[in-house]
What we know:
Elements: H1 19-22, H2 24-42, H3 46-49, H4 52-60, H5 64-73, H6 76-86, H7 94-110, E1 112-113, E2 127-133, H8 137-141, E3 147-152, E4 158-162, H9 167-173, E5 175-176, H10 178-191, E6 196-201, E7 205-212, E8 217-222, E9 227-228, E10 245-248, E11 253-255, H11 264-268
Parallel strand pairs: 1-5
Antiparallel strand pairs: 2-3, 3-4, 6-7, 6-10, 7-8, 8-9, 10-11
Amino acid sequence: VVISNASKADPFEFRGVDAAAANPQAKMVEEQHLAMLQAKMSSLPGRLQQQVSSLNGAKKYDERGLQKQALDEIPVPALDALARQEGPSSTDGYEVVFMKKVLLWYKKFFFSWTNSPKCDHCGSTQTKTVGSTKPNQEEQFFGAGTVEVAQCELCGLQTRFPRYNDPGKLLEWRTGRCGEWANCFTLVARALGYEARHVHDWTDHVWTEVYCDSLQRWAHVDSCEQAFDTPMVYEQGWGKKLTYCLAFARDHAVDVTQRYTRKFDELLTRRTQFSEQEL
């Protein structure tokens, strides 16, 4: 099932079977491309070397099993009906209208925001995060690097809140903060056929970008905010002092910071961790 036509020229796009698996040469090219990107990144300064894991994470969004799991959760016929009822505009094609419906569903009906988790013992929402602890074996398996610990103000017992980083687990978990929201949503977008990038803002936020044929460019998509193509929301709306915004896709990593600022010269003075040439 491919809803978007956003990547119709993509040689690795899904066409009913796993294209890379069906074409050994395409699979070899894909693997060589990823290895080249990883090798280039491994020779960079320390903080940039750490981004290799982000590239590997983006690669996970193309796993067919995960995409099928995501499609099983998405009410595609209902969203398609809503998109067709609204119809494309003179500037926005079907894939843009459909993506806006996906955003609506995801924020209102699928994923939830959690600052402090509901008590596992008495069900109270009156909990407060009191610290963190190491993940257990199962939590580590699903990518949790840390586990927040919340204490219930009613029963006094503690609840664990693993910060999962596995998009498949997040399809089941369905809650978290911006990291979990964007991680799971990027998988949703990719499963629907959109070329998608996972964007890391080094001033502590995460979102998605999708490529739209009708716009002929990448568009900003923030599932936490149900925001489509509003890249100035962080600098102008939130007052963020951006530094680095790096986007990771299945076959590339790119600095997209300029899309999110109108004060790039001023922003450059805050980019001091390595040279622009290294970046």
